[in-house]
């Protein structure tokens, strides 16, 4: 789930088989109408979304059919190929990573608490789950409902890139973008690990932050701080 420049075979028909298993989410706010997931590298992604070349990021996820707001677009459905890449990684584990593992972890790791991640560690594992190619936008059309469920927050038209905002789930010093290329009027240009402190983002995304980010926001507010000051962050450059 990061900005990447991937070199993968987009002509592959991997994942074209239909898996008609429909998850039954009891939440009445969730639209299950088109909530049918793919298979193979689309195991966690609904069939209305496919990997394609992205104008700004190399590769990205695109809607191949209209998707209504509130549709579950991604779900961590265990017991399938994707679980092979969902290695739980503690931040201390990264100390023993090889440079290549670290590069992949930084590009594709999905942070679920201040110290825990799930991440592939090889390129082969990356390509087992195309949700790894989900790109950031400062005006995203998908956001998390919880760690295991992401929803469309607006109607998505066929052909649109399906995007997320890293601020809703990332808080590590490596996950920074010096020059965001999302080309939206909301673009905040530099994406940092302390953007959750921005009041307008808290109000914009409301409860669409992962629980641990919501706790960081609550702690920040409890310190009587209103807004992020200057561009304070702890971004670390990994060569
Ligand atoms: Zn941007």
Structure characterization notes:
A hairpin with a 3-residue loop joins strand 1 and strand 2. This protein has one domain: SET domain (Beta-clip-like, Beta Complex), CATH 2.170.270. The longest helix is centred in the C-terminal third of the chain and has 12 residues. By secondary structure, the chain is an alpha+beta fold. It has four helices and ten strands; from the N terminus they run ββββαββαββββαα. It has a four-stranded mixed β-sheet with strand order 1-2-10-7, with no helix packed on it. 14% of the residues lie in helices and 17% in strands. The chain is globular. Bound molecules: zinc ion. Zinc ion binds next to loops.
Number of domains: 1
- What are the secondary-structure elements, in order, as H or E? EEEEHEEHEEEEHH
Specify the structural class.
Answer: alpha+beta
Q: What coarse outline follows from CA principal-axis ratios?
A: globular
Alpha plus pi helix count: 4
Q: What is the CATH C level class, in words?
A: Mainly Beta
| Uncertain ranges | 2-26
Largest sheet: 4 strands, mixed
């Amino acid at each position: 789930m990061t900005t990447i420049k991937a070199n993968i075979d987009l002509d592959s028909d991997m994942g074209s088989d239909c898996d008609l298993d429909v998850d039954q989410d009891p939440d009445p706010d969730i639209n299950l109408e088109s909530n049918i997931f793919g298979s193979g590298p689309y195991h966690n992604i609904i069939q209305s979304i496919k990997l394609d070349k992205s104008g700004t990021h190399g590769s990205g996820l695109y809607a191949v059919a209209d998707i209504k707001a509130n549709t579950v677009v991604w779900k961590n459905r265990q017991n399938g190929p994707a679980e092979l890449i969902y290695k739980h990684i503690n931040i201390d584990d990264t100390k023993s990573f090889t440079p290549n593992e670290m590069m992949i972890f930084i590009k594709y790791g999905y942070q679920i608490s201040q110290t825990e991640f799930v991440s592939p560690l090889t390129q082969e594992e990356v390509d087992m789950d195309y949700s790894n190619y989900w790109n950031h936008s400062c005006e995203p059309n998908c956001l998390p409902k919880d760690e295991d469920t992401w929803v469309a927050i607006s109607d998505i038209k066929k052909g649109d890139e399906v995007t997320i905002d890293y601020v809703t789930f990332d808080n590590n010093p490596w996950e920074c973008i010096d020059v965001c290329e999302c080309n939206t009027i909301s673009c905040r240009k530099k994406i940092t690990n302390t953007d959750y402190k921005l009041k307008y983002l808290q109000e914009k995304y409301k409860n669409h932050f992962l629980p641990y980010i919501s706790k960081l926001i609550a702690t920040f507010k409890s310190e009587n701080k209103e807004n992020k000051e200057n561009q304070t962050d702890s971004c670390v450059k990994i060569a």
